[in-house]
Amino acid sequence: MGLAAGSLLGGTTMAQSSGSADATATPDRVITTLDELQSTFRPDGTLKPGDRVRITDENAPYRTTQWLDIDQSGVTVVCDGAFPLVKPAGGANVGGLRVGKHRRVEDVTIDGYSHHGNPSEQSMSEGGFGIGSFAVDSITIRNCDIRRTTPYHKHNARNSGVIIGRDTDAYDVLNNDFDHIGDRAINAWGEYGYVAHNFSENGFDRMISVEPGEDIAIVNNRCAGNGRGSVIGVGRKISAPKRILIAGNIATGTHRRFIYCNSTAEWTNTMVRGNIGDGSDSTHPGIEVRAPHSTVAGNHLAGYGGAGVLVNAPRTWVRGNRVWDCGGPGVQFDPIESPMRYKAAGLNGAFKSVAQNNHLWRNCRQRGAAELQTAAKRTRLLNNNVIGTRNGIAGIVAIGRGRFSTAAWNVTPHGADVFADGGPTRTQANL
């Protein structure tokens, strides 16, 4: 199996470095007509293993009446830059490219494909995605432009921009643009993934969704508006993603949460680091972590309607974040929300979690909260800087009996110091 995943923070991928996807390489065939396009990309079409195909924009947009299938290994598709290159014909009820739909393939590259789903002229109730990867070992999807997939603005209808199926191993989704997408921009279920430098605007549900997935890097993506979903979502109640890096992403405009990590696995090893989110139009937390053994570090979060960082998973480390102007606490540790939900995994809320070296100011637009708040057992609040609490009952609050939490060496120059309700909560040397 060829490995597609690139270096975690923007390095050259193996598919790029191999030279097989070099945009200047001579193609084996050049497509200039709709008939050539559809006869090449059929399950029984003329495509051969190792073919390099250039799709020109000479007669674009190509008004397709069938899916475009890649069922051969080693294929590279390079497209000219006009948008849209492909726009399904009225009533065709098809989407764009399908890779490995009818047989297992490997080492496929799609470069520069552009797609308009034409939802106003389609009657399909589901399934009109832009690019779909099925039984594939190693795929690279880059420099593509996908808009208005079908059906438009319907959730869970297999109508995302890019779909990475659960039978895909090793995928790179790089430098793609998504606008007015039908559901999610990128919906990934496979393993060994690298999702980087993508841009989405006017989105609907999540921009990037990984569920379940293992060994995934989601880095340096940008989102400018996501009507109803989180920008980045990892996992859900019944899945257990593991070893996830979420770093260097930027979110603005309307969205629900910025980053949502959710897993019932006992160990997830999730790192959320160096992300920047402006949640002025959000009513939810900026970063919400329900994945055990996670680290949330060095993020900048402003304006979210809920907490800046909300943790409801054990052994989570929240360090060095800058959070301001949020509706709830800057950092909040919760006890277990639903004991039955995590019973099988033996989880217990934010048990044994740490908040350290965070800079929190002018949060708590909602009355009765605190800049730094814990109601979970055995949490440690160390060396945090709490400034300018507006409506909070205190800068730091530890609530509940028998918690045995520690709040030490925190700085709260504007507002109350530490408030402990029901202890014993050990506090010391707060300045």
UniProtKB/TrEMBL annotation:
Query: Looking at the record's lineage, which domain of life comes first?
Result: Archaea
**Gene3D superfamilies, from UniProt?**
Single-stranded right-handed beta-helix, Pectin lyase-like
SUPFAM superfamilies per the record? Pectin lyase-like (SSF51126)
InterPro entries of this UniProt entry? PbH1, Pectin_lyas_fold, Pectin_lyase_fold/virulence
Report what the protein is called: Right handed beta helix domain-containing protein
Organism expressing this protein natively: Halococcus saccharolyticus DSM 5350
Q: What is the lineage of its organism?
A: Archaea, Methanobacteriati, Methanobacteriota, Stenosarchaea group, Halobacteria
